[in-house]
Automatic annotation (TrEMBL):
CDD domains: Arfrp1 (cd04160). Signal peptide: none annotated. SMART domains: ARF (SM00177), RAB (SM00175), SAR (SM00178). The keyword Transferase does not apply. It holds the Pfam family Arf. Keywords: GTP-binding, Nucleotide-binding. Gene3D superfamilies: P-loop containing nucleotide triphosphate hydrolases. This is ADP-ribosylation factor-like protein 3. InterPro entries: P-loop_NTPase, Small_GTP-bd, Small_GTPase_ARF, Small_GTPase_ARF/SAR.
Amino acid sequence: MFHLVKGIYNNWNKREQYSVLILGLDNAGKTTFLETLKKEYSMNSKPLDKITPTVGQNVATIPIESNRSILKFWDVGGQESLRSMWSEYYSQCHGIIFVVDSTDRSRIDECSETLKGIVMDDEIEGVPILMLANKQDVPERMEVQDIKEIFNKIAEHMSARDSRVLPVCALTGEGVKDSIEWLILRLQRNKEARPPTYK
Ligand SMILES: Nc1nc2c(ncn2[C@@H]2O[C@H](COP(=O)(O)OP(=O)(O)OP(=O)(O)O)[C@@H](O)[C@H]2O)c(=O)[nH]1
Ligand SMILES: [Mg+2]
């Protein structure tokens, strides 16, 4: 009887874990976003002024109590020479966050070409994609509506899946938690196609 109850309890206590890949050009604010996210979910985080360009990966496992689930984030370097490694993560990921530097008009074409390269990859077919228009605190930023228009054109070519462009400021945390709430609902909605692991 004890073992039965313990088994039921253990099963009930297991949580869905989803892997989320954070991509985007170098300097977009991916690592800043991840560190702010850790802070927003009451985890130890690195001071934002100590973040240096990522060579390799940063990993963070964050329990999301409101959904009784766990998100495992993979933040990988965005420098051009490192982008060829991104595809190694595709088969394992349940969702993608693509961070855009809204202040960098000179690289918006490079940014959209890079996103196109990701969404065209068969290995991430059906995976929800959240685009974050970051650095909304900078007055000279591009308007979210303009960024939406650019990325919605790419989204039109994607097979049926969830995608969204949301404004955030990774430095102050504005919009960060809301963006994760959007994503986690889509990950759960997509779980028949990409089942989570259980922890
Ligand atoms: N003003 C402003 N600056 C930001 C924001 N988010 C990030 N930054 C700055 O952008 C720069 C790059 O941030 P990172 O988080 O290192 O960028 P990354 O995308 O991880 O870059 P790589 O690791 O090279 O791919 C840093 O100087 C950050 O302080 C933001 O919301 N507002
Ligand atoms: Mg980084």
